[in-house]
Amino acid sequence: MSESSTVHQPTLVESAGRKQIRTLLGTLITLAAIAYAADLFSRLGLAIYTEQYLAVILGISLALVFLKPQANPLRRGFDTALGLIGLGAGLYLSVQYPWLVERQLDMPLSALILSVTFLLLVMEGLRRVVGITLVIVVATFLAFALLGHHLTGPLQTRNVEFDRLVVYLGLDTNGMLGLTLAVAATIVIGFVLFGQLLLRSGGADFFNDLALCLMGRSRGGSGKIATIASALFGSISGVVVSNIVATGVVTIRMMKQGGFKPQTAAAIETVASTGGQIMPPVMGAVAFLMAEFLQISYADVVLAALVPAILYYAALFIQVDLEAAKEGIAKVDPALIPQRNEVLRNGWIFVVPFAAVVGALFFFNLRPETAALWGALGALIVGVSRGYKGKRMGISDIRAALAETGHSIVDIIMIGAAAGFIIGILNVTGLGFGLTYFLVQLGEGNLFLLLLISALVCIVLGMGMPTVGVYLLLAVLVAPSLIQVGVEPIAAHLFIFYMGMMSMITPPIAIGAFFAASIAGADPIKTAFTSMRLGWTAYIVPFLFVTTPALLLLGDTGDIVIAISTTLAGVWAISVGFVGYFGQRLGSLQRFGFIASGALLLFPAMGSTSLLIATRVTALVLLVILLLTASLCRTKAQPSSGS
């Protein structure tokens, strides 16, 4: 034992030193973002390019990626060198950017060396934070950029020399230092800080207690509590896995104690946490990115996303309620439910940070990153002055929030830089138009086929990535082809976002389901398939709002009301069929009937009006027959059970 301790002691000492350095670097990222959002540089009379700020953030992020603790001394030394090179390259680019950008067309040697350095470090950093899949995607686009001019057909690219391509990707505002990195380094950091401060101010405890008060006394209350708590926290966290870990350690245990099977408890938590990313108003910060991409107001994005999110959670609530009735799951122990008045008296103050964000956006028309700063300031004031149930935020909590914000954003910074490479390649080679044309051709003019192909691409590319990274990548690669064939831009972007998020619950990766399964002690694959059943609306509803824009609150009021009503009825019917319970356990034929009637109600508004009316009438007649039959069977069963 003593020898073992002696061997590992140097590693522990160095690990502690590295931890301090990484804490400092994470804090610097957050402080730089605060300074940028507050226009501190302008107030001090410093005129800087946005790209100079981005270079600093990218350099520090690269250092954080490579300075993670390593047990192997050789590997540790190599990583330290890479981290220092990344940090130095970022600082050099920040200082020299005005000079380099003026001489970009002259191709100075320093620009080429710097661009190659960033390309290699970002690719390696990307591999370390999200795995090899996205690296392969970027490498494939690079290969296309260099060799695509030899192809024929829609994917043929223009000939671009290697050195000009690399410098363009490294220095141009359409490349690495473009929109995707800018969004990650400004808007996303602000809302991650907001979430971190809200968490440490007691906001997460308040949300959990509020959910207990609202749903603890209802059937299957523990499952409904998990749904509400995860939706509230997930909307601001921006990372499905962190949401599952933060809320799941409480809610999954509560559901298992309440009587839910381990795989069902894990699946409910997974679906609820994933849904938090699509729940307005924050949507894991994607709402603001979508507004930037589409050049529309934030309010328009929130309104469009509202009904699909309601349908998603309606299906989950219905299934949780029916599952509880089917399995005889009791209500939450009253002793665990706090007094509603006490919860509201202690936690009403947490309205302030959200009101600050909404006020900054809607009434003062501030930039999203500045609005996030207002929300973070509100959370800080609430946490320091009041907290929750007497537990106030201290200096150590503030330091931890600043450092953790910087650490949390590193993955997204790497993805943002890599997405910038892809955007640059699409622009400089003409591949962007070719890829859009290729996908449209692949769909052969069939919108449904194009949507199906796009959905599969989104699920595959989104596997294992953070929310913002999923959206940024798919908004660049897939959304343009949908818009090209006439899909409403907001519908196209919501479609790819929904489908990308479903990678969290779709095997074989299903990273969200696997994390929840580990907490619940459940089988990961069974949890993933149960999650797919509970979250089925997210696979279907995107196809509906593409073909029926009324579900995005676009069009006449009458059409909107009819579309929402029939869709809700269809969601309810299919959910009943999936669970197999309506007052009593349903037989296979009854379950099929409910699913069929729901599918007819959800039949998209394509083709003739007479066909649409016929499907709706058939669905309603079938549903009425099923309801009457189920009611009759339940009436007959009651006397026999009583005797």
Fold blueprint:
Layout: H1 2-37, H2 40-43, H3 50-66, H4 73-102, H5 109-130, H6 132-147, H7 162-171, H8 179-200, H9 203-215, H10 221-237, H11 240-258, H12 262-276, H13 286-294, H14 298-327, H15 340-347, H16 351-363, H17 368-385, H18 395-429, H19 431-442, H20 447-461, H21 467-477, H22 479-484, H23 489-501, H24 511-520, H25 524-534, H26 537-547, H27 557-579, H28 588-601, H29 609-642
The first-to-last residue Cα distance is 69 Å
State which percent range the strand residues make up.
under 5%
Oligomeric state: single chain
Strand/helix succession:
HHHHHHHHHHHHHHHHHHHHHHHHHHHHH
* Uncertain segments: 1-14
* General form: globular
Number of strands: 0
The level of helicity is over 70%
Largest sheet: none
* Number of helical regions: 29
Task: Kindly provide the radius of gyration, computed on alpha-carbon positions and rounded to a whole number of angstroms.
Answer: 26 Å
Structural class: mainly alpha
Mean model confidence by pLDDT? 84
